Amino acid sequence: MPALLKSLELNGYKTFASRTSFEFAGSVTAIVGPNGSGKSNVADALRWVLGEQSYTLLRGRKTDDMIFAGSQSRPRAGMASAEIVFDNSDGWLPIDFSEVSIARRAFRDGQNEYLINNQKVRLKDISELLAKSGLAERTYTVIGQGLVDVALSLKAEERRKLFEEAAGIGLYRSRKDQALRRLDTTKRNLDRVQDILAELKPRLRSLERQSRRAEEFSQIQADLQEILREWYGYHWHRSQRELRAAREVVESQEKQLAATREKQTQLLSELNQTRERMSSLRAQLNSWHRQLAQLHGNRETTSRDLAVSDERKRSLVDRRQVLLQERMRLEEETTTTRTRVEEVRIETERFKNEMTDAEGELAQARQQLQERLDAQRNAEEALENARQRIDNFKGRKIELKLRKDELEKRLGEQEQRRFSADARIEEARQPVLSASDQVHAAREKAAEAAKELELAKQILAEKQQGLEKLEANHKDKTQRVAEQNTALARAEAQLQVYEEAENALAGYASGAKVLLEAARQSRLTGARGALNQHIEVSQEYEAAISAALGEYVDAVVLDDGDPENALRLLDEGAVRGALLPLTRLKPEEPLTVPDDEACLGLAADLVQVPPELRPVADLLLGQSLIVQDRSAAQRILAGQSNGARAVTLRGEVFYSNGTILVNTQRQDNALARPRQQRETTASVEQMRQSVNSAASELEELQSEIKRFHLEVEETLSNHRDVVAQEEEARAVAQELRLELEAAERKLEWEEEQRKALENEAEKAVQELDTVREEQRTVDTQLAQAEEALKTLRANTTMLPMDDHQSQVSYWETQVAVRQQALQNVQARLDERQHALDTNTSRLETNQQRITEIEQQQSDLQSQVMELRGSEGEVGEEINKLTALTEPAEAELLEVETEQERLQGIESQARESLNVAERHYTQAQVALVRQQEALTTLRQRVEDDFGLVEFDYQETISGPTPLPFEGLVQRLPVVTELSPDIEDSLKVKRNQLRRLGSVNPDAQKEYREVKERYEFMSSQVEDLEKAEVDVREVIAELDTLMEREFRKTFDIVAGHFREIFTRLFGGGSARLLLTEPEDMTSTGIDIETQLPGKRSQRLALLSGGERSLTAAALVFSLLKASPTPFCVMDEVDAMLDEANVGRFRDLLSELSEQTQFVVITHNRNTVQVADVIYGITMGRDTASQMISLKLDEVDERYSY
Description:
This protein is an alpha/beta fold. The chain has a domain at 506-682: Alpha-Beta Plaits, CATH 3.30.70.1620. The chain is built from 18 helices and 27 strands. It has a six-stranded antiparallel sheet. Strands 8-24-25-3-26-27 form a six-stranded mixed sheet, sandwiched between helices. The longest helix has 334 residues, at 170-503. It is flat and about 165 Å long. 20% of the residues are buried.
């Protein structure tokens, strides 16, 4: 088969740090390499690039694990990428490319990119591309050791998934799941709609009652407003009169208050002047009193300071005398201490010199001692090495003797075993000869049964092929019917939109709407409708004809010659409209069409109208020529008379007088809409006929399919009988063949044992000769080592060391004694130096304190002189201030008497002012109340009537509404109310109160809810029908999946029996359905009987037997439903060499249908490969790939 998988390129993926490319040119490609080299990463990369999202299957935990992690010698990668290339020349992938590349990239931030042919796509796009080929859903595209074991450890119900993948019913199951979701959604929608209807029904009844109440409320309210107009008119003008009287009272009180306030102001001015004078005198006196008090205090302070200064002078003299005596004593102590320090420093230098001499002698003695110790240590090490060599040689001598004895014993045992093997070989040859004849006869019988089975298979295949064609035809027709129904629904919806737009008069001018609505209501007789409803125009001329008609495109055509009724309706609606009374039209002579290729014809000739409307077309279009473009319009109009027009196909109108009209808002929709409605109506009728015809054909096809199903079931029953006979014959032949193969294997095994014994004996003889030669060599080396040991012992006794050790001890003692003496002298030197430094510091401190005291004495003398001068000046100031305060105190007494008199007069004036202000405030309050009453009345009027134009008297003003004619009301002037008006108001208001709160929008809401209720009722019917349709689709999908699953199971079961027997060289196995009566959920069990054993459960099989059984199941699935390619990752790891051979033969056979990539350690498996790649791990922990030949595998890799 052609290689569909062409290549795989990795870069930065796991251990493949560098760009690595694998070319898959043959049917089988092998990948080999030592453990840990990264072979299995190739299988992971194929899973990953095909969109695998489970990091557990990819042997990782997150995206970072897919990217090369780096090492000590190589930095980590920032991105991992893998690209796989497929050959799509035969179109097995649903994409229009002969070669398809799929790539995936991963970045360290966790982002993934997907590409198809270097174009970024979504993961969903890749899944949809691979879905039809089976690569997106098949578990066994990449087979590892884990899948091999899982295939057997799965529960019977879970193992079913492998067969569903092989049957390719995943697409049907997904469609069924979608249908179930649609069914669930339809149910929920139906419940929701029914809930809404249940909610709307009582609300609809309530709104109907509210609508009737709202109508009654409106009538009562209108009557109430008429009564209120009269009532408000009377009270409005009365309130204005009362307001004017209140304003006059306020003005009178305001004048009286002003006179009283002026008198009060004069009195306050005089009183303030008196208060200011009194305050000034008091402030001056207070200032002088404060100065006197301060001066007396200063004089007392100066006296105290003089006494303190005298006492400080005496203290400073005493302290200076004490410091002078202490300085003399410190100078004597410092001289004595300095002499002692010099003596100790000389003694320290002497001890240092003696210490240096002793340390030199000690270093020389230690060097001599170390040289003698090194010589002795080297001699002892050589002596120990010699002893170790002698011990090694003695141990090896003992080992060789034991090995020699063991080999001699084994040679004797092997000779006896060879004689026994020869006898067993002769016994094994007899059963082989007797079983050959029986196998030949059984094979002939099985061949006859196989021919009958092949004939039954052909008949069954023909029936199934016919059934598949019918079902495919049924599927296509069902899909076409669904598409036709969808198109019909779309067309009917479009037609309904046109009809609703026409009913709503959408797109018509306002005048046309008024007239056409009046005609529908029989208020306008003789109206034929709008002009565009009667004109038929070719689509290419619609824009031009619409521009030529202009505003007449939707003009109303009248049979009646008198348009008065129509004109009255336009006046009432205050709109602009166009009328075409047929009996009054006077069309002009049509233009002659010029002989010009760019002139397409006269506009009136390019439209189709009823005969009675031909005058309308001649009148409106008889002077218009339709031309190709602008240049043609200007050229053709040059020779035309006044009034002629040329209209381009784009709708541009050129007049003969030179004017041009271009309307960017195209009106051709007014002409196109009737045409589109007619075309849609015809299309809907045609679609309905087509749908009915297809439905009839579909019913006939369903009957034919049912008949074929019965025939297929009958054929299947016959086929099963033949299969049972063929299986019985094959079982007999198989048992005989197994007996023959068992006898042959036993004979072969005995012969191999005989050869193995001969090889072992030959190896034992060679090894015995080697041991004897090594014994002689070890004896010679042992003698030489013992002689060298004697020589080393003699040399070691000639190295005395006692003299050198005593010399080192002597000088170490001398150094320690001198070091201690030096430390003592140094301590005395530090102590005396510290005493000298202390005396010097104390002497400096003493001198500093004496200087400070002398400075303080000088400063104190100056301060005493200043204090005595200040004391005399303060006495003079006190005398001056005492002379000023006495006259000021007398004047203050007179001013206080005048203030008391003025305060009494001002108190009486203030009382009069309070009375005047109270009267003025009361008048203002009365005025405000009248204003508020008038404002409240105006607010009540506006609340009841909205915009009202009020009449104000000359002295009263208020807001005036904008002059909206018809919206602003005016209150009447009423001088006297009717006697029963108050009773009428109470009656009307009581009626409104009894009605209670009324919903003003009840009538509108009632119409809206009623329309919604009717719409929801129709939706219930549609949803119930949709539910029935979805259930039918689910039933059809179940039938289809059951048939495909049964067909695939039968095929896989047959292959499994055959492949199991081939792989095990005998035995039998079969696949069983756990619930044959329920094909939608039945599980699949496996029964096995190994050669020479009883039937046993899968859990009791050994590791190799499980691997071989699982391989038989996987190979059966691949044979029944081949995948484009399959990756096997160390599937043969548990197989021995004999089983690997049969595994390899099956692999080679299946490679004719499926391309294989095999990752293996087994050389026998590698032999089937067309291309071999080797994987190694470099020093930088990155995987490297090399292309190999078969004979190079063992040289580079060991297994």
